[in-house]
Design a protein that fits this description.
- Two copies of one chain form a homodimer.
- Chain A has 14 helices and twelve strands.
- In chain A, helix 1 packs across helix 2, helix 5 packs across helix 13 and helix 8 packs parallel to helix 9.
- The termini of chain A are far apart.
- The structure holds a DNA duplex (16 and 16 nucleotides).
Chain lengths: 349, 349
DNA sequence: CTGAAAGCGCTTACAG
DNA sequence: CTGAAAGCGCTTACAG
């Protein structure tokens, strides 16, 4: 009647204290690896734990005082390989630091994002890495911060948010790839993809604009096209563009995923990337290498950014500091085969 | 001096009981949505919670009795889009059921897998969905089961394990795609990729063998090539194959990732898939559609398998049953452009 | 319909 | 170096 406990769990430090013939305080000290415990005692306790199949109950531990070793990882689109790589980077440093991540995929929904963040707080996450959903507002982010929750924004900055940020150098990257197209001889260059309110898009457009102006050109509003930052978005936007009478000779896409969708639309119309029209991506995901033709793009190393974000969060948790740090990762131009000079130039040369 | 608590957390049911002028038992009842509480009381309590910014502490709740609403999700290779889709499917049903997943990427390391599973137990996961790392043994899995941990194996079965399983119909899928190649006229068909001990590979080879034998052919051991189930693995194995004097006319690859790696190797040698050699995948990841030529493959719907696995786990947690269930998802043939008849036949026709 | 008491498994001062 | 006691924030019988 008394042995009727669940087969699992239920071995507590009391059981192992009894088995080892010590008090539970001593067991607790062994658990923490305290140097106060005599080697001999420690041994007896360790043996008892092994014998009884003891499993440490972190929930109970956290309740009394210790920090939880859980952090939340909130991803806007895990189906995008770029964010999957980011998540892997985060998980890698977390695990090696003894932390374990909750994960949630918001699929760009701010509603889910709010639910999920609340749930993570309830479960005792001691910090959160947030890749914000598209319409996230500065206020939401600041509210969390005001609650004292360590929080790192990753990849996408949120205007008005006072959080720390880990992102890539969007402006420099976009400028770099635009200059590359200009040096190839392009004069009519479109910018395709991303939605107008997205801060990342603003940054990339800033770089795009800067490169044009440095070459004595200016932005043509007719060549700035919005789309969801997805394959479908890129497909639709490019289809629309190709339905026009006049085409640009080159297209700077918001990111790789958009570019790949756009290339699909080009394929449908018999337009060959790298021969009839130049096209570029951003992110350098594995897919960028695999499409045909391979995509000229900007490499940003998602895995590394994930690691940086996790390190920054862990530092803030440990120090208690909520200072607003920023890490901007390098954006390298990677030239592959998706770009060509504009058609006319080619005829001449 | 007494107001010196952390700005975060620290609002407890006691605080809100005081604010609402009730006992903490009543607050607890409101929290559980009990119908025993008078509407009026419930209102006062709810208002107090809103006013004080109360956050439910699930850790404390679990300690006393309630089941934790955490489950672990252990993935062997999150960088593989197939497993990313699976993870998204799992997360989707978990979240809508009020659960939240821990995630870990083992990167095929059984050592990490063991660490991670232990950590999840310590953190109070009430069940685990495991995509086992390559060298996982039945014993490890059974040990967990014996501890009373609800556990679902996903995608890869583990010989000797007595767990429930959600996977796709590997044998039927492989038979189907092999028959397709035979109907195209192929007689020298290789099987490329996966490592010999992998149960999934054994199943697919069984299907491959069955299709050959039904056509009156038999397996040629010289045409069975191992590789890691990754892009690099496929690349290396195909490079070796192409270094031989005699080539097969068609290659059944272990999965899409291997096939895409193999196609890269073919490209290097100027061998065109779908013209000089037929090649197939397995999984139907998004990439299979994007490579050039698009890959003939077996669609298994990773997202759906993820949802099934999560549903099965939740059912087992709720019912307390550790019955050994199995769900085998359909494996549909998807014909694209990576397959052609064998060269000689084409000359004739 | 509401309250007082005990207890979940740990950690944290405080003694000794 | 080790132990006894209080407490973390909840839930769960048990009264009333």
């Amino acid at each position: 009647m008394s042995g009727k406990r669940r087969a699992s769990a239920s071995v507590t430090i009391i059981d192992i204290a009894r088995e080892a013939g010590v008090s539970k305080s001593t067991v607790s000290l062994v658990l923490k690896g305290s140097s106060l415990v005599a080697d001999d005692t420690r041994d007896r306790v360790s043996k008892a734990m092994a014998k009884l199949g003891y499993v440490y109950n972190r929930g109970a531990a956290n309740l009394r005082g210790a920090q939880s070793s859980i952090v939340g990882m909130v991803i806007n689109d895990l189906a995008n390989p770029f964010f999957a790589e980011l998540a892997i980077g985060i998980e890698r440093v977390l695990r090696t630091s003894g932390y374990i991540p909750f994960i949630a995929n918001t699929a760009e929904s701010v509603v889910r994002q709010a639910e999920v963040v609340r749930s993570m707080r309830e479960h005792g996450a001691s910090g959160i890495i947030l890749c914000p959903a598209l319409e996230t507002e500065g206020r939401e982010v600041n509210d969390l911060l005001d609650l004292g929750m360590p929080l790192i924004l990753a990849i996408r900055r949120v205007p008005g948010a006072r959080t720390s940020l880990v992102a890539s150098d969007n402006t420099a990257g976009a400028a770099r790839i635009t200059s590359h197209l200009i040096s190839l001889g392009h004069r009519r260059i479109a910018f395709l993809g991303g939605m107008e309110p997205m801060a990342v898009r603003k940054d990339r457009i800033a770089g795009f604009t800067r490169a044009l102006e440095e070459a004595g050109m200016h932005v043509d509003p007719a060549l700035m096209l919005e789309s969801m930052p997805s394959k479908d978005g890129g497909f639709t936007a490019m289809s629309n563009l190709l339905a026009r009478r006049e085409w640009p000779t080159a297209v700077v896409c918001f990111n790789d995923v958009v570019a790949i969708g756009a290339m699909l639309a080009m394929g449908r119309k018999g337009v060959v990337a790298g021969r009839d029209m130049a096209i570029t991506g951003f992110d350098d995901t594995a897919e960028a290498r695999q499409v045909s033709p391979p995509l000229t793009t900007i490499a940003v190393d998602a895995g590394d950014l994930g690691e940086r974000a996790a390190q920054m969060l862990l530092r803030q948790i440990a120090s208690g500091s909520r200072a607003q740090e920023t890490y901007i990762g390098e954006a390298r131009l990677v030239v592959r085969e998706s770009c060509c000079p504009p058609p006319r130039e080619r005829k001449i040369s």
